[in-house]
Give the backbone structure.
Amino acid sequence: MALDLQQINDRIEIEELLARYSRALDYRNFEELEAIFTADALFDAGGLGSPSGPAAIAAMIEGTIGHLDATQHLVGKSLVDFGEDGDTAEVRTYLISQHIRESTEGPVKHYFLGGEYYDRVVRTPDGWRIAFRRLDRMWKQGDRAVIGHG
């Protein structure tokens, strides 16, 4: 499939949007995190909830990882399928995230998660934004208590 210059540019912008998401999490920049989503965005995070709107999404994420000593969210190359209008796309991206909390009881101080993000992104006047995100968990390793609040 041949890509035109606009699609190449859009793919780069979408991949940078997803990288900015990971960096916002890892640097605890929840204000920047809010700017990554549309005003009516929905995040299906499975057992963590399904918040709607940038502030609620950021609050859910902050409540999940804000107390940790460190996180690192690594995302792979994205598969981007543009809608016919060119202003929407479905994106699938593998991820590995690790979570560290030194005060966790026991010898294991980390929790790893492997999965895939499924996103619907839209072009806005401010650039590409996530309108819908779903986290599909594929595997885990370590102590889940690390991300608990105990």
Remarks:
- Strands lie at 37-44, 70-82, 88-100, 110-124, 127-142.
- The chain has a mean pLDDT of 94.
- The chain has three helices and five strands.
- The CA atoms of residues 92 and 118 lie 5 Å apart.
